[in-house]
Amino acid sequence: MKLATEPMTLNGTVSFSHRQYLVLAVPLIISGISTPILGAVDTAVIGRIPDPASIGGVAVGAVIFNTMYWLLGFLRVSTSGFTAQAEGANNQREMVLSFLRPMILAILFGLFFIILQGPILTMALSLIGGSEAVSSFASTYFSIRIWGAPFILLSYVIIGWLIGMGKVRLALATQIWMNVLNIILDLVFVFGLGMGVKGVAYATLIAEVSAVVLGALLLYLTNREKLASIKLSMLLETEPILKMMKVNRDLFLRTVCLLTMTVTFTSIGASMGEVTLAANAILLQIHYIIAYLFGGFANASSILVGRAIGGENLFLYKRALTLSAQWGLASAILLSLIVLIFGDSIIALFTTIPDVKSMSEDFLVWMLVFPIVGFWGLQLEGIFSGATEAKSIRDSIALALIVFLITLWLFVPLYQNHGLWLAFVTFSFSRSFFLSLFVPKLTGQKFY
Length: 448
Prior knowledge:
Blueprint: H1 18-32, H2 34-46, H3 52-71, H4 74-88, H5 92-115, H6 117-128, H7 132-145, H8 149-164, H9 168-192, H10 196-222, H11 224-228, H12 232-235, H13 238-270, H14 274-310, H15 314-350, H16 354-362, H17 365-386, H18 390-415, H19 417-436, H20 439-447
Helix pairs in contact: 1-9, 1-14, 2-3, 2-9, 2-10, 2-14, 3-7, 3-13, 3-14, 4-5, 4-8, 4-13, 4-14, 5-8, 7-10, 8-10, 9-10, 13-18, 13-19, 14-15, 14-16, 14-17, 15-17, 17-19, 18-19
């Protein structure tokens, strides 16, 4: 037995209530939905311009950035997990090192993306496809936003560290600033100055960079003494670096599988025409918002699990699993009802183009199904991330990808875009199912 199972929580009490969980989760939910809101605002603003190619161009550009940044999403996830475990063990030095190590990686990868922006854009457009007009708008959008790559990747580390430390209000402050500024600049650049796709790209770039500057300043001011105590030799310790790289490797491969699914989905949709591409882009934005809402609960559970493992607290670990399941299911039901009742109005926020709006409404039923079949997989990824056990996440996503490709092969020829969305929902269910099979093994490894 690895630990005593005295049921102590973060506050030294014998229970961790639903209210305490929500106090932790709600700011994380608000912070989390900032990521898809950036793309959603861009899509909604461009959707006011009567040109489906503009929507498609921004959508394709957003997919390219999602692909690039999601590949490096392990920077946030692993930073959060390692930091929460260090905080749970009350290891002050490791708390700071859990930020500095991935910070170096973030800056290097960001510069790498800028240097190779030409080949990245060419390869991405050849894979995704789309009309000449869509590709032109996507190129414009990409060539502007790419300069924010080091900043957005650094923001992953900052947000991951703040979440791992439980400093959710600071994380929330930077995200609120980014979104408010992005919305204001979108409106000014597109409607005030008539800059079109260039306007939404510049607005997002400026908002991303300013949020990172704000986050870095807040982090430095609140941790000045701890940062000053760190020496280069501490950063170069072999064992923690190897552990970080192993977790990041598995999370990277997980993301490769996830993005293979996303790019395949977008590419097949693009082959069905500009209107279908634009409609699917709007539904994907709705999906991202739903997924990131669940991500807030997953991040809360990740903090609890990380601290439970760092502090060898079996009670808190089991409580995190229970709260994740309960609030995930309740949220899934609520979100499906919201889509059912207000779905047409939500779509109307994204576009005024009749053909795109009508097609989006025709396929909205899949957004009713997604929360129910997908919530548990998203919640469990938070559990496994907090435990820094990424191998199971990697394996479950790989299995789900196989199921997705088989479903595509069977049903897209028969049902076209409905077959495409069926494969998407099947993928979401599969990741939930397969990852749940690894939970007993995780519990045994960490606590028995």
